[in-house]
Design brief:
The complex is a heterotrimer of chains A (293), B (290) and C (220).
Chain A: H1 16-50, H2 56-60, H3 73-104, H4 110-122, H5 127-141, H6 148-172, H7 176-184, H8 189-216, H9 221-225, H10 245-254, H11 258-289
Helix pairs in contact in A: 1-11, 3-6, 3-8, 3-10, 5-6, 6-8, 7-8, 8-11, 10-11
Chain B: H1 2-12, H2 16-25, E1 34-45, E2 48-59, E3 63-67, H3 74-80, E4 91-99, E5 102-103, H4 111-117, E6 118-121, H5 132-142, H6 149-159, H7 163-166, H8 179-191, E7 197-201, H9 209-222, E8 227-231, H10 235-241, E9 244-253, E10 258-268, H11 269-274, H12 279-285
Chain C: H1 3-36, H2 39-70, H3 74-106, H4 114-140, H5 143-147, H6 149-170, H7 174-209
Helix pairs in contact in C: 1-2, 1-3, 1-4, 2-3, 3-7, 4-6, 4-7, 6-7
Classes of the chains: A mainly alpha (293), B alpha/beta (290), C mainly alpha (220).
């Protein structure tokens, strides 16, 4: 026990940095609030307006001039088909490109750098531009016509850069030590990629793909541009004319009859539900296959 | 030589077999089998020279340790033995590494064939994110050695002293094992492809002391059937387990511009740790380095 | 665990016991030569010391190598240090046997005194017993048994003191007196062999308890 102990002041003061910290924290809460409140208001408005109209009629009937019996069945089916085709196209192309860029490409070569630059840019291109592109080259250029397949292909192009970027991140996240271990056992580059890197990257790739797809099925502009019809009463086929749920919603809001606006709100709920389901699926997939390195 | 021994036997009643056992443990240089014959080996990454003019013979069924301060090129060197340096684009290897008489860097040599015979265990255990069984089975599967796969896996796990601990949960994730177990799994993975040589790059530096001791005891058993080369920054470890020890150091030349790794001394472990020939070696092992 | 360390410790200890066997043979040899005045046997005993020295050196080198490479601690370290000391004591015992053999050669031809010879025989038997007890208690890490060496040593010490009296009593001509003095040295050698055996017992106690203490104070 010393006679003189150093003067230790443990009581903190109301210093400037403490206040700065508090202000910072408050602004974070504020931005969070703004986001939540805005979103919340929108959702609440839509749901209150449309929930009464979400019934089996809406889901199973084709559209009609009579709001009482108008439904969204063809639109829902088309959106589903679009989603499936989208996955079927984007995943192989996107993952393949990502594997090439991450595992095989020699970064010092100019064409590889150009490829990377392109992909980054394409992710930022407005969706309506893809619509024009599709109209010019797919619908008219090679003569596909205004069909579901064309819509799927447009959306593929729209979504591909995002999937490639997500897949690259997932592949990059696979630790180099895994590759080293596989090479050291005598595996060839192909075996290492196919048997170790890809399987380990699948959760990330799947999550990225599903998120990209769930964004895409909400796209309206490109589909309208390539000629999604406003009024289809039959079930769509891949090679035939089609409409999609966002397009349907857009059309209903344009009609003079106020009841259609309420139906549109109901259809928005259906669309939101579909997107929510997809995202939930993505989260479940990610959690189920998550590996702790 | 024989006369003196029989004299001893008569006077002391000593077991002949016991004598033979002791002589076998450290045969004289002329009677040792050479697995790797390295001559004038150098490695550079781009323009930076990592390793300069190394010549060394690695003997069969010996544990050979590479020790030295960090940056002396010992990890770079051990990776030359299984051509893992090929995976680094800027690495250039010159000189020869003869494996049982064949140049590993010869024009038509397939790195996959090389790595089949010369396995490697890394510093941080790197089990694949798969089941224990699939980890050990990976090597045989990619190399087409799929006959009796289950027996192969079991044999490898037994040799790696891991079988008893995992035999009831082969399908469990490899990542659920402890660090020491994971490292033994990585060793089992190597053994499953029946290599000739095991390269170990600081295999125990990420492990606790007990796990380390188990790995060291394992190496002692494994050297009966395999040739083991180990890099370690823990020279006491080299002292404990190695038969031959090579001390690497850093040579600074060109007014301090070039730092390259060189081989300073290579001899039996007792000699290195009781009476090294080079002062630099003595400074290092006594801890007076730098 | 630590297979190599254990193996090397075991090897050192078995080498030590082999050396002990050599020393016992040396003791028996030199006493037999003394008793039967056998110069040839005495020569063999002297030559035999080379074997003991070789064993001693091998153990020394083994210990040096083990300390450098295995960095033993706690009981392993005490075992190694005890082995080092026991090794030295065994080698000294063998040297005393050589001295006895050399003295046997020097006094060849002189008729011995029967009483003294009997005493030496008894001392020799005691010495052999002590060596055996010392080595066995070391092997078994039995401190109590090691401590019993003190009593056995007492017997040799007493016999040594009686030998002095007997030599004085012999008297006689120069040759006889010279013989007597040389035999005194022989007696002293046997007594020292007993002391070294006690020292081995002390090493056993050190190994087990970690404490080094003399069993008896030499000044008594």
């Amino acid at each position: 026990m010393s006679a003189t102990s150093p003067n230790v002041e443990l009581q903190g003061g109301r210093t400037r940095s403490v206040w700065r910290g508090r202000i910072f924290y408050a602004s974070l809460l504020l931005s969070l609030a703004v986001g939540f409140i805005t979103l919340g208001t929108l959702v609440v408005q839509v749901v209150t307006k449309g929930i009464a109209f979400v019934d089996p009629v809406l889901l199973t009937n084709p559209p009609s001039a009579d709001p009482a019996v108008a439904g969204t069945r063809p639109a829902i089916l088309a959106t589903l088909y679009l989603g499936v085709l989208l996955i079927a196209f984007t995943v192989p192309i996107g993952v393949g490109t990502a594997i090439y860029l991450e595992e095989y490409a020699n970064r010092s070569r100019w064409y590889n750098r150009l490829l990377e630059l392109n992909i980054q840019n394409l992710a930022a291109v407005p969706s309506i531009v893809y619509g024009i592109l599709g109209l010019a080259f797919l619908v008219r250029g090679i003569g596909l016509g205004r069909v579901l397949l064309a819509g799927a292909l447009i959306l593929t192009l729209l979504v591909l850069p995002t999937v490639i970027i997500a897949a690259r991140e997932a592949i990059r996240a696979v630790p180099g030590s895994i590759r080293d271990g596989a090479y050291a056992l005598g595996a060839t580059k192909w075996q290492v990629t196919w048997r170790q890197v890809l399987p380990a990257a699948i959760p990330g790739i799947a999550t990225g793909s599903i998120l990209a797809v769930s964004r895409a099925i909400g796209e309206t502009a490109p589909l309208i541009l390539i000629g999604a019809l406003t009024y289809i009463s039959f079930n769509p086929t891949i090679g035939g004319p089609f409409t999609a749920l966002p397009v349907q919603i857009y059309n209903w809001t344009k009609l003079p009859n106020p009841e259609f606006k309420e139906l549109a709100a109901a259809a928005i709920i259906v669309l939101l539900a579909m997107v929510l389901l997809l995202n939930a699926g993505a989260i479940w997939l990610r959690n189920h296959y998550q590996q702790k390195w | 030589m024989a006369n003196a021994e029989t004299e001893l036997v008569r006077m002391r009643g000593v077991d002949q077999a016991d004598l033979a056992e002791r002589a076998r443990r450290m045969p004289p240089p002329e009677s040792r089998d050479v697995v790797f014959d390295v001559s004038g080996l150098g490695v550079r990454y781009g323009s930076a020279r990592a390793l300069k003019d190394v010549s060394i013979s690695v003997y069969k069924n010996f544990v050979t340790a590479f020790i030295g301060p960090s940056g002396c090129g010992k990890s770079t060197f051990i990776r030359c033995f299984n051509r893992m340096n090929d995976l680094i684009p800027t690495a250039v290897v010159d000189g020869t590494v003869n494996y049982h008489g064949q140049d590993l860097y010869g024009p038509r040599v397939d790195p996959v064939e090389v790595r089949k015979r010369i396995g490697m265990v890394f510093q941080k255990p790197n089990p694949f994110p798969k089941s224990i069984y699939d980890n050990v089975a990976f090597g045989p599967r990619v190399l087409g050695m799929t006959d009796d796969l289950e027996e192969r896996v079991e044999r490898a796990l037994i040799q790696a002293a891991l079988w008893d601990e995992v035999k009831d949960r082969l399908k469990a994730s490899a990542l659920s094992l402890s660090g020491g177990q994971q490292q033994r799994l990585c060793i089992a993975r190597c053994l499953a492809v029946e290599p000739d040589v095991l390269l170990m790059d600081e295999p125990a530096s990420a492990l606790d002391p007990i796990a380390t001791t188990r790995i060291e005891d394992l190496m002692h058993d494994l050297k009966r059937d395999y040739t083991i080369v180990i890099v370690t920054h823990n020279m006491q470890q080299a002292a404990r387990i190695a038969d031959m020890t090579a001390f690497f150091s850093i040579e600074i030349s060109d007014e301090g511009k070039q730092r390259s790794g060189i081989l300073v001394e290579y001899d039996t472990t007792p000699k290195i740790f009781t009476q090294p020939s080079d002062k630099r070696t003595e400074d290092y092992v006594t801890g007076r380095f730098g | 665990m630590r297979i190599t360390l254990q193996q090397e410790l075991d090897e050192l200890e078995s080498a030590l016991h082999e050396e002990g066997e050599l020393v016992l043979r040396a003791v028996r040899g030199c006493l037999g030569a003394l008793d039967r005045q056998d110069e040839e046997l005495a020569d063999e005993v002297i030559a035999f010391d080379d074997e003991v020295d070789e064993a001693y050196l091998r153990i020394e080198e083994g210990i040096q190598s083990l300390l450098a490479r295995q960095t033993p601690v706690a009981i392993d370290l005490r075992t190694v240090l005890a082995t080092l000391h026991v090794n030295l004591h065994l080698e000294r015992m063998a040297d005393y046997c050589v001295t006895v053999a050399k003295l046997t050669k020097l006094v060849a031809g002189v008729p011995p005194d029967a009483t003294l010879m009997e005493a030496f025989e008894e001392m020799g038997v005691r010495a052999e017993e002590m060596i055996r007890v010392a080595l066995e208690s070391f092997a078994e890490r039995d401190v109590q048994r090691a401590e019993s060496l003190v009593e056995l040593d007492e017997l040799i010490d007493r016999a040594n003191r009686r030998a002095v009296q007997q030599v004085i009593a012999i008297g006689g001509d120069d040759e006889r007196r010279e013989w007597g003095l040389r035999m005194l040295i022989v007696s002293r050698c046997l007594e020292r062999i007993g002391d070294h055996a006690v020292d081995i017992g002390e090493q056993t106690a050190f190994l087990v308890t970690g404490e080094f203490r003399e069993f008896t104070d030499a000044s008594h």
